[in-house]
Specification:
The protein contains 19 helices and 20 strands. With about 600 residues, it is α+β, with helices and mostly antiparallel strands. The chain folds into two domains: about 30-400, no CATH class; about 405-545. The strands form seven sheets. A five-stranded mixed beta sheet has the order 3-6-8-7-20, with helices on one face. Strands 13-14-15-16 form a four-stranded antiparallel beta sheet. Strand 15 and strand 16 (about 505-515) form a beta hairpin. Helix 11 (about 295-320) crosses helix 12. The longest helix is centred in the last third of the chain and has 26 residues, at about 520-545. The two termini are about 40 Å apart. The model is unreliable at about 555-565 and about 590-605 (pLDDT under 50). The protein binds zinc ion (ZN).
């Protein structure tokens, strides 16, 4: 840590707006970044390998509202135990020491980890850094909304006894459970950096694409799991201390780094006697994991992106005088952009691995148009090998501007008018229905509209992006006997797209989920053919879930889903049609088994 000057709260408030232009070292000296102590990974790893024990330089952005709890603008730690009914006292914020204190007034750091209040600070500090990771320019370059009404995520570090942790939209919370392992030691999921970051990955994705939860597709559920695991890996490798030790112990060969590729080590050891819960270091293809549920399927994409990370670190090591430490830092900075920035390009609903892979490649083109090191080709090959993309994508991708060439707008709108309001964006959509392949009879609406200022790895600006997401609902009758008690009713299929413009109004990317209605020309026919396949998949999925008893009524009252068992899919009636929704409750494991028993269930997917 540099020499820290005493900066008063008033001075910090004055510097707050300018802090985006200040370098990390200066921010530390001015007290705009505050160091906290957190577990590098989890208590088991800290015990087994003390050099991977604590991160004492975990820097958290100062903000004006930090207070007891901890509480900050986006997080409130509420240490209520649903099993015991116990509400633990809050960690106390001490302005003078710039630290949180336990009830006895002692600073909570690596020398004082026993009090529950250390757990509260640990989970809060990890989340603060994770939020910065998504919001900074090398991430999404904009503030992240949550997928619920309100802006503060409630975090319950000791929710009760169980082998689980989850994000739950309805109660606006992250819930962390604890359990005793075979040696009789208590394992706290709120002390596992991987688990915290994984669950937060769900919360972020639910905020960025809230309609994914309505999808019945296994791949959309798997994408949620991938985001969780990818978040955990990238955030771990961003830790200076961890990265340096890893560089020294692997001598630049990142593929040997089991501490990095293994996710949730302590939890995995305790629940399944594996060295981790899941691993990113795999060679899985789509056909290997077909029909095996979201957690297992997610490993294909996690494996593909991890392979890209390894390729990047090899590249940075080979192509210059970089030390292993430098190479890892360059690779992780680049990987943040490669993995996170494409999220803004995704369609608003039913995301598949193919959609994400195409978004990754397009985002790379935008940030790195000349691509002197052929990164796009490298990534493309990995996606094809894993059966996420196929050769036809590869051929099309090599044609310049292949997707975007199809969008020929007839009625021009000033980008300022489109981006100023949802009503303005709607006029643009309505005036261009034919070019945008939006059926004339459908009531299209703007699902979201925002802009972002993304940066390259070197901190250069990527053109400002204006992102427009639009949707409509197509009515789908449930006619066969396979729909059981729901036969004769109808459901809806969400259709729509995401258009990304630059500041001049040029379309940078256009991702779509078609319906089954529309015009007669060639473009429409191709679109409708895809829409029909989507409808078939939707009906098949609903029938399968009804048959296997996965569909249940909406549960949970005021407190949301706390402590209750939840079916994987819920159904409710809205505007005369049924809505089948993936339960907005994304757990660490076991939420998506084809068979489940009633009662409280925390089984682990393997
Ligand atoms: Zn998960």
């Amino acid at each position: 840590m540099g020499v820290r000057r005493r900066t008063t709260e008033t001075a910090r408030k004055r510097l707050y707006a300018a802090s985006q232009y200040l370098d990390k070292k200066v921010k530390e000296e001015l007290g705009l970044l505050i160091p906290f102590t957190v577990y590098l990974q989890d208590p088991l790893l800290a015990k087994n390998d003390p050099k991977f024990g604590f991160d004492k330089e975990h820097l958290v952005r100062w903000e004006p509202g930090i207070s007891d709890g901890p509480t900050s603008a986006r997080f409130a730690i509420v240490d209520y135990n649903g099993d015991t009914g116990h509400l633990a006292p809050k960690a106390k914020w001490n302005l003078k020491k710039e630290a949180f204190l336990d009830p006895a007034g002692k600073v909570l750091d690596h020398k004082n980890t026993k009090p529950l209040q250390f757990h509260q600070v640990n989970v809060w500090a990890v989340l603060q850094m994770a939020l910065t990771f998504f919001e900074q320019g090398q991430g999404l370059g904009r503030p992240i909304p949550f997928g619920f009404e309100g802006n503060r995520l409630i975090v319950v570090p000791h929710a009760g006894y169980g082998k689980n942790a989850f994000y739950d939209r309805k109660s606006k919370s992250l819930q962390f459970y604890y359990f005793d392992n075979d040696e009789g030691e208590r394992v706290y999921t709120c002390l596992s950096t991987d688990i915290i970051n994984h669950e937060f990955g769900h919360a972020v994705l639910d905020g960025v694409r809230p309609y994914f939860i309505e999808s019945c597709l296994d791949e959309t559920g798997a994408f949620h799991e991938f985001m969780g695991d990818m978040t955990a890996i990238l955030l771990l490798l961003r830790k200076n201390d961890f990265r340096k030790k890893l560089a020294d112990s692997t001598d630049g060969n990142l593929s040997e780094a089991k501490q990095l590729s293994g996710i949730a080590e302590e939890f995995g050891k305790a629940v399944s006697n594996n060295d981790y819960l899941r691993t990113a270091d795999n060679n899985l293809k789509m056909s290997d994991q077909k029909g095996s549920g979201p957690h297992a399927l997610s490993e294909v994409m996690t494996g593909a992106m991890y392979e890209i990370l390894l390729k990047l670190s090899e590249h940075y090591l080979d192509n210059s005088d970089n030390t292993a430490r430098d190479a890892y830092w360059s690779a992780i900075q680049r990987m943040q952009r490669v993995a996170i920035q494409p999220l803004d390009l995704l369609p608003p609903v039913d995301v598949t691995f193919e959609d994400y892979a195409l978004a990754v490649l397009r985002a790379e083109e935008l940030a790195n148009p000349t691509d002197p090191h052929n990164y796009i080709e490298t990534m493309l090959k990995i996606f094809v090998k894993r059966e996420i993309l196929d050769e036809s994508h590869a051929e099309a991708m090599r044609e310049p501007r292949y997707v975007y060439a199809r969008l020929r707008l007839k009625v021009f709108h000033d980008i300022d008018n489109i981006s100023r309001s949802r009503a303005g964006a709607y006029r643009f959509l309505d005036d261009n229905r034919d070019a945008l392949l939006i059926p004339a009879i459908q009531d299209v609406f703007v699902a979201d509209l925002y802009d972002s200022q993304k940066l390259t790895r070197e901190g250069r600006r990527v053109p400002r992006q204006i992102i427009l997401e639009y949707l409509w609902r197509e009515n789908v009758p449930l006619t066969g006997s396979e729909f059981g008690e729901f036969r004769g009713q109808s459901t809806t299929m969400l259709c729509g797209g995401t258009i990304v413009f630059d500041e001049k109004g040029t379309v940078l990317s256009w991702a779509r989920k078609p319906g089954t209605q529309g015009g007669r020309n060639k473009a429409w026919k191709e679109e409708i053919a895809i829409g029909r396949k989507r409808r078939e998949a939707l009906l098949e999925n609903i029938a399968h879930r009804i048959k296997s008893g996965q569909v249940g009524a909406v549960l949970g009252g005021e407190k949301g889903l706390l402590g209750t068992y939840v079916p994987p899919v819920t159904v409710r009636e809205l505007d005369g049609a049924l809505r089948f929704e993936r339960t907005p409750h994304l757990s660490l494991s076991g939420e998506d088994h084809d068979h489940y028993q009633g009662g409280r269930s925390w089984e682990v997917s393997s």
